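Appendix B, record 7
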Amino acid sequence: MSELPPQTLENAFESKPALRNAATIGFQAGIVGAFVSAVQNALGSHSRGAAGFLTRSGGTIGTFAAMGAAFAFTEAAIANQRETNDALNGIAGGCAAGFLAGLRTRSIPVALGSCAVIGAAMGTFDYAGEIAGRSKEEKEEKRKKFFKSVPQPVNHASE
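Structure tokens (predicted):
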């Protein structure tokens, strides 16, 4: 039987607390949603005054909080299930958050499109972060694999 090679300490997977991440990110996203709601209230013309922050555009706060919590929970749950930290976790989390954003419009096609767009954006962001977070040796090795080597000019010594 073939056995899996032992993981080194650098590559060892650490489990993520999905519910704690969801609560934390959901709260932070709710704060961003409150800011967006306040801006919407300030720029809109209405007769409700400051109460419009919650009554007119308060759904924005909940949407932002739900999207943040869905992203964080899905990303952590997928990472724990797969026992890897890679861009696919971000794709799944972005898809979950995008789907919720699309559901706010009450349209399944918009929800699926938002899932694809936000999932692709988060996957790209996570993949770029993985490349940027590597050591110089790993970056150089990946760069050499991707780019062709430039031939060095030949210098002839004139005598």
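Remarks on this record: The two ends are 67 Å apart (CA to CA). The longest helix spans residues 18-43.
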